[in-house]
Design brief:
This is Deaminated glutathione amidase. This protein has one domain: 4-Layer Sandwich (Nitrilase/N-carbamoyl-D-aminoacid amidohydrolase), CATH 3.60.110. With 325 residues, the chain is α/β, with parallel strands linked by helices. The structure holds N-(4-carboxy-4-oxobutanoyl)-L-cysteinylglycine.
């Protein structure tokens, strides 16, 4: 398989010396179970891939990227929504789905154990408990730690049912997906406290605010944005979520042509709490970008401009806005 690995942008990566990297690698070799939050430089890798309906090919591409990123010092790697596959039609999408106990998650579990890193699997087509009766799936963001254990499963709450005739966009996610019932409390990872969301969720700032209030230091939006909506909104939405919540934002994206009727925008991003882009991929091919998640930066931004303390929503408008709709 022809692999294009582009190490897109490389700004703000901590300048780890060769010596430090070697020490880190030998620690990994000794035992992945020794990996603790403190033994790992907080380097995140945001990936982008072009999933098709071939699950094995998709897995190989993701594996290649994760391995490369880990070699370059990443301790957590982020894969996009539909990292497992993108079906050509509804029936195929449903047919290819698996449970969390299936082959796909098993293979990723093994991978994280072998490499001693954490992964974010941005959108797994998950057969729910009611599959036998309703043949519906969840769009699930699964976090696996360096010991191969599932640490969290967030099921996408906002489904993308959108018709934009002028832009030739027509997708009805609810035709095969059950909306998730709840948001998850942010979880500790080697790079900071992660708030989990998926793709279209980025358009709902109340979700990002809720996650930030529960302690999120990093918001994650693994995505498969359409080219039309991505061109218009992608970067603006992600930077706005980072700026208003003063958190890091990591958004792994699908990129390029998946099949004759579907193409994705790409441009995977890592944004810091000031809104600066510190890691970026292009819009044409698979690859990854690395960035340091420096939580001191987050503290500085929040101290210097205490936006969260300045909120007056209870007093001004919280119980009032619906009557104006
Ligand atoms: O279909 C699958 O297999 C995986 N799921 C997706 O790709 C989802 C639902 S169709 N895509 C989006 O939410 C795009 C959102 C978007 O483009 C926007 O908000 O502008």
């Amino acid at each position: 398989m022809l692999l294009y690995i582009s190490r897109c942008c490389f700004r703000n990566v901590r300048s780890t010396t060769f010596h430090l990297k070697e020490i880190q690698k030998s620690v990994l070799r000794m035992s992945s179970s020794l990996m603790t939050t403190s033994s790992c430089n907080p380097i995140a890798a945001v990936c982008q891939v072009t999933s098709t309906a071939d699950k094995n090919v998709n897995f190989s591409l993701c594996q290649e990227l994760v391995q490369q990123a880990q070699k370059e010092g990443a301790c957590m790697v982020f894969l996009p929504e539909a990292f497992d596959y993108i079906g050509t039609n509804r029936e195929e999408t449903l047919q290819l789905s698996e449970t969390l106990e299936g082959d796909t998650i098993q293979r990723y579990s093994q991978m994280t154990r072998d490499l001693g890193i954490w992964v974010s699997l941005g959108g797994f087509h998950e057969r729910g408990h009611t599959w036998e009766t309703d043949r519906r799936i969840y769009n699930s963001h699964v976090i696996i730690n360096s010991e191969g254990s599932i640490m969290a499963v967030y099921r996408k709450c906002h489904l993308f049912d959108v018709e934009l005739p002028e832009k030739k966009v027509s997708l009805r996610e609810s035709a095969f997906t059950i909306p998730g019932p709840k948001i998850l409390e942010p979880l500790q990872s080697p790079i900071g406290k992660l708030g989990l969301a998926i793709c279209y969720d980025v358009r709902f700032p109340e979700l990002s605010l809720a996650l930030m209030r529960q302690g999120a230091e990093i918001l994650t939006y693994p995505s498969a944005f359409t080219v039309a909506t991505g061109t218009a909104h992608w970067e603006v939405l992600l930077r706005a979520r980072a700026i208003e919540t003063q958190t890091f934002v990591i958004a792994a994206a699908q990129v390029g042509r998946h099949n004759s009727s579907r193409t994705s925008y790409g441009h995977s991003l890592i944004v810091d709490p000031w809104g600066d882009i510190i890691g970026r991929c292009g819009g044409d091919k698979p690859g990854y970008a690395l960035a340091e998640i420096d939580l001191n930066k987050l503290r500085r931004v929040r101290t210097d401009m205490p936006v969260q303390k300045h909120r007056r929503e209870n007093e001004l408008y919280l119980n009032d806005w619906k009557q104006h709709l």
